[in-house]
Design brief:
Length: 299
């Protein structure tokens, strides 16, 4: 069994990005710039935003936090989105989710210029990915593609089971896997994921176990700790655990620990490859946002 070390691969990619950005700046051009819109004071969102700002600084990408009070109206936030679309100093931006209940997330996301949509969540980017056109791909599926690719795990002709059908993970992941490779992801990515036979499972799927037992690769993004157990996987499978759930743990320094969707202790011995949680998909997601920002800058 080989652990897929997302922390290590992400640090390799950060080194590559740092060199690419340094070369851009050395040639006399300005560095890429990411905007991060945050509405309100959700503590988890504040932490994610702080991590993204830090990650940008680490590779030389400029980043600006654009904060609004949670009293902002949907109409005013749409006006701010329009300003960002028109701002030539910002190459890409994200709107940190969730937004307050009085703002329709889809309305806001749909207003983002798809060329600046470095979260890959606009209908344009999703549609372009579906059609195999160059697009900005949502960070987590992009990161998983990089991880599989850099560990030389082929997907061609393989049966990949994706558990979860969210817009940010399950759906775009399944789309990338079933396509011909290289159509959506740009050349700057080493990812060569595609040509797989994909089954998408979700909360209404009956007999998840039988389906998983036919999988060569299982990607689980359900947010259900311990969902995938040893009796559901065959020997030699590759397992990508996207799930992150906080579980109270009085012995942990922060009072909680992070667990994935896989019963790691029982599943790992049967795997050819498996991601740990934490240290697997999580670090890849952040570095993918940086790659997407550079992609938006270069296009
Ligand atoms: P979500 O929470 O929007 O939806 C969960 C999906 O799982 C749904 O499509 C649902 O149908 C499916 N599901 C739920 N229970 C199931 C079950 N028992 N059997 C089969 N399918 C089931 O999904 P999301 O936003 O993609 O998040 C999923 C998990 O991944 C969460 O734990 C989230 O925190 C984590 N996540 C991690 C990263 C990362 O960088 N590691 C990024 C995004 C999300």
């Amino acid at each position: 069994m080989t652990l897929l070390d997302g922390k290590y691969i992400a640090s390799q990619i950060r080194n590559e990005l740092r060199e690419q950005v340094a070369a851009i700046v050395a040639s006399g051009r300005r560095a890429p710039k990411l905007g991060i819109v945050i509405v309100g004071h959700n503590p988890a969102s504040e932490t994610y935003v702080a991590n993204k700002l830090k990650a940008c600084a680490d590779v030389g990408i400029n980043a600006e936090k654009i904060a609004f009070e949670d009293t902002i109206t949907e109409a005013d936030l749409l006006r701010e989105v329009a300003k960002l679309n028109a701002d030539n100093s910002i190459d890409g931006y994200i709107v940190q989710l969730p937004l307050p209940a009085h703002i329709n997330e889809q309305t806001i996301l749909s207003a983002i210029d798809y060329r600046k949509d470095v979260d890959g969540l606009t209908p344009e980017n999703v549609g372009r990915t579906v059609q195999g056109l160059p697009s900005i791909v949502s960070a987590t599926p992009r990161g998983i593609s990089e991880l599989l690719s850099r560990y030389h795990i082929p997907t061609e002709g393989k049966h990949v089971v994706v558990i979860g059908r969210s817009n940010i993970v399950g759906k775009p992941m399944a789309m990338l896997l079933m396509q011909r490779p290289y159509l959506s992801l740009p050349k700057l990515s080493a990812a060569a994921v595609g040509n797989a036979t994909v089954t998408i499972c979700h909360s209404k799927t009956t007999d998840l176990k039988s389906i998983c037992l036919t999988a060569d690769i299982i990607i689980v993004a359900a947010g259900c700790p311990g969902l995938l157990t040893a009796d559901m996987v065959r020997e030699g499978v590759t397992v990508i655990d996207v799930g992150i759930t906080r579980v109270e743990d009085a012995n942990a320094p922060k009072g909680y620990r992070l667990v994935g969707d896989v019963d790691f202790a029982s599943v790992a011995p049967k795997c050819a490859f498996i991601t740990p949680v934490p240290g697997g998909v999580g670090p890849m997601t952040i570095v993918s946002l940086l790659q997407n920002t550079l992609q938006a800058y270069l296009q």
